[in-house]
Automatic annotation (TrEMBL):
<keyword id="KW-0479">Metal-binding</keyword>
<feature type="domain" description="EF-hand">
    <location>
        <begin position="82"/>
        <end position="117"/>
    </location>
</feature>
<dbReference type="Pfam" id="PF13499">
    <property type="entry name" value="EF-hand_7"/>
</dbReference>
<keyword id="KW-0677">Repeat</keyword>
<dbReference type="GO" id="GO:0005509">
    <property type="term" value="F:calcium ion binding"/>
</dbReference>
<dbReference type="InterPro" id="IPR018247">
    <property type="entry name" value="EF_Hand_1_Ca_BS"/>
</dbReference>
<keyword id="KW-0106">Calcium</keyword>
<feature type="domain" description="EF-hand">
    <location>
        <begin position="118"/>
        <end position="153"/>
    </location>
</feature>
<feature type="domain" description="EF-hand">
    <location>
        <begin position="5"/>
        <end position="40"/>
    </location>
</feature>
<dbReference type="InterPro" id="IPR039647">
    <property type="entry name" value="EF_hand_pair_protein_CML-like"/>
</dbReference>
<dbReference type="InterPro" id="IPR002048">
    <property type="entry name" value="EF_hand_dom"/>
</dbReference>
<protein>
    <recommendedName>
        <fullName>EF-hand domain-containing protein</fullName>
    </recommendedName>
</protein>
<dbReference type="InterPro" id="IPR011992">
    <property type="entry name" value="EF-hand-dom_pair"/>
</dbReference>
Length: 153
């Protein structure tokens, strides 16, 4: 599809949500409209909420440009902020003492809670693999960087 046709198509979609024709849609209307989007199936709703807040620049309103940015975003790439938000939430859940680092003990507990059976030995290896600065803990940056490497991005 040529870009202009695509824009027209998106504009029509946007206008449909923008019932009062203000050129902006509320975050709630936007959320309602995109929740059924198959591209979002992999993400939890809390992640989508944070994403919408960031997309709207914390204004609670979505402009056409922001709408377009979402519609044209590739959600299958780790460059997409949805992934960063999702990973950050998972990271924060595992980081139970909230010091910004995942120790091997936290990692072990975190994954036991998630119902996965990974042995303690295996976990130490994962932490070692991800622990780029060798301080014995995994920071969010280390976590994200290594996931990107594993995904070849
Ligand atoms: Ca911690
Ligand atoms: Ca580290």
């Amino acid at each position: 599809m040529p870009q202009t046709t695509k824009d027209e198509y998106l504009q029509k979609k946007f206008d449909k949500i923008d019932k009062d024709n203000t050129g902006k849609i509320s975050a709630a209307d936007f959320r309602q409209a995109i929740l059924g989007d198959y591209r979002l199936e992999a993400f939890r709703t809390t992640t989508i909420d944070v994403y919408i807040t960031e997309l709207s620049n914390h204004t609670g309103r979505i402009t056409f440009e922001q709408f377009k940015k979402f519609m044209q975003a590739d959600t299958y790439t780790l460059k997409n902020s949805l992934f960063t938000i999702e990973f950050k939430q998972a990271f924060d859940e595992i980081d139970t003492n909230k010091d910004g680092f995942i120790s091997s003990q936290e990692a072990r507990q975190g994954l036991t809670l998630a119902g996965q059976h990974i042995s303690g030995l295996c976990f130490n290896q994962i932490i070692q693999m991800f622990d780029d600065d060798h301080d014995g803990q995994m920071s969010f940056e280390e976590f994200l960087n290594n996931i990107k490497i594993l995904w070849h991005e």
